[in-house]
Automatic annotation (TrEMBL):
Organism: Streptomyces globisporus C-1027
Predominant location: membrane
Gene Ontology annotations of biological process type: glycine betaine transport; transmembrane transport
Highest taxon above the source species: Bacteria
Annotated compartments: Cell membrane; Membrane
Protein name: ABC transporter permease
Residues annotated as domain ABC transmembrane type-1: 18-201
Amino acid sequence: MSFWEYLITRHQQLLTDAFQHVSAVFQCMVIATLLGVVIGVVSYRSGWGGSLAITSTATILTIPSLAAIGLLIPLVGLGVAPTVITLTLYGLLPIVRNSIVGLRGVDPSLVDAATGIGMSRTARLLRVELPLAWPPILTGIRVSTQMLMGIAAIAAYASGPGLGNEIFRGIASLGSANAINQVLAGTLGIVILALLFDAAYVLLGRLTIPRGIRA
């Protein structure tokens, strides 16, 4: 069976796996973004606090993703839970780092001006600092998403959702007629989804970042 014939025959399953892959990555990115920005907001004013936040989240990436999922299985079982925990933790570093860099890069004179007109600290953060720090934060989100698209494939080891199941099935049946087709379909599917995600972020940036800041 050719690769094209395989895609036609298995398109329903492939579309289901692709949807589950996108859903898992998107949901984990939402959680990671919220956590990462909060950590950045809490720690960016302190030199040691920012360093601790970046070092801690960077340490997570030194753990092989397969090992991380394997260690979580006895604690939370198979399926969605280890997938969500692993992807969320692995997505933190770029967001935390870029949140801290972006917030520290806000022009102090703008913050002083906001203080001068009576804005509270919370108002300055929400209306001045975070909007100006949004471009680097969005860049961190893009980087995290690209990372998680690949790492999510490993979730199939723990019976997680996504295109990783197609890849693992192909690897487990190497030598059979469709083994290479399965691995190739899963891999290309992840690459295509990653490119679509990145294009969506480019569009989001154009819609949410004023032209003057982009320049």
